Amino acid sequence: MTVPHRFDEITETLARQSIELPSWAFGNSGTRFKVFGTPGTPRDTHEKIADAAKVHEMTGLAPSVALHIPWDDVEDFTELKAHAENLGVELGTINANTFQDEDYKFGSLTHSDPAIRRKAIDHHFRCIEIMHATGSTDLKIWLADGTNYPGQDSLRARQDRLAASLAEIYERLDAHQRLVLEYKFFEPAFYHTDVPDWGTSYAQVSALGDRALTCLDTGHHAPGTNIEFIVMQLMRLGKLGSFDFNSRFYADDDLIVGAADPFQLFRILYEVIANGGLDEDSPVRFMLDQCHNIEEKIPGQIRSVLNVQEMTARALLVDRAALDKAQAEHDVLGANEVLMDAFQTDVRPALAQWRASRGLPEEPMRAYAESGHQRHLAEQRVGGAQAGWG
Ligand code: RM4
Ligand code: MN
């Protein structure tokens, strides 16, 4: 068995890791069958940010929170920024939502009617204005655009309209702002999706410029897809902007990252690290995009960032010199063993100790449960409408 690097050699890199939380993970979510509410669920954006700040307080891993517009629209984003900062977090990626308006039934940025396209582009302009107020650097675009039946619309014309719409949006960004285009192979459209895969996202963002990149949501691939290969390829091309982490058993399940397939998460993080994704100047940002349909949301997010951290630590422990050697010698089983040794390493005790040395709870899950915070929220947040996907 290969002896892994000592843990203290990886802490400097681990300390650099940050994972952005999605505001919507703290609201209620569900399936088309039922949305279950939970006592203590935030009623507004301010409360969602407070919950995200709690996750950061317990883990030291989540210093920023992504907003979704219009779900998180407020009158005064300067005030919202101050609110976040008071709680010890920053406002991060702005997600443009063009999937819940009647006008977008047949598309948004790809719509055949110029007036609807205008409306969708203007929504992104509004998101960019918000970014100026919040100091956010990333505008994230995920489109529900697509068709349900062959022949319903011209696949080509939609792609051309998308390119033109994205160009207008990209033009609006400041020199320090980025556009990240997310892909997803199906849903809500069932026949074709306008940005179904990394290749399409890559083609579209490459046409825009250097500050347009791809967002990889781990739940947005067909079963069996080798996601780590896509990670490597996008990084090789300098176009991987961010991750939306989650896990899935069947479709876009949005379950806790690392829950469904921890080994896949390890393989992805190994490629991230091997390709410089945790270097100081890395353009790759880590985010979660999850829903907690039946579990408590704050501990759900704590578990999630810990899963990413644990798997990052294991991936960092891969003995790269031994791996290089085994690969050069075509030692198939030896190379595989080097990788598996790191994957099988239990880093939890070392991480717990390291957290304590940094003034963080050794075991954030337990510390949160014992803090009584959840009960406190349930008592405080009475009345009003709980936040959700509306
Ligand atoms: C989409 C996609 C987006 C997210 C929405 C809520 O499936 O993953 O990133 O903003 O869901
Ligand atoms: Mn996503």
UniProtKB/TrEMBL annotation:
DNA-binding found in the keyword field: no
One Pfam family recorded for the sequence: AP_endonuc_2
PANTHER family: L-RHAMNOSE ISOMERASE (PTHR30268)
Keywords, alphabetical: Isomerase, Manganese, Metal-binding
Gene Ontology MF, one: L-rhamnose isomerase activity
Gene Ontology biological process terms from the UniProt entry: L-lyxose metabolic process; rhamnose catabolic process
Domain Xylose isomerase-like TIM barrel: 69-222
Record-given protein name: L-rhamnose isomerase / sugar isomerase
InterPro entries reported for this sequence: L-rhamnose_isomerase, Rhamnose_iso-rel, Xyl_isomerase-like_sf, Xyl_isomerase-like_TIM-brl
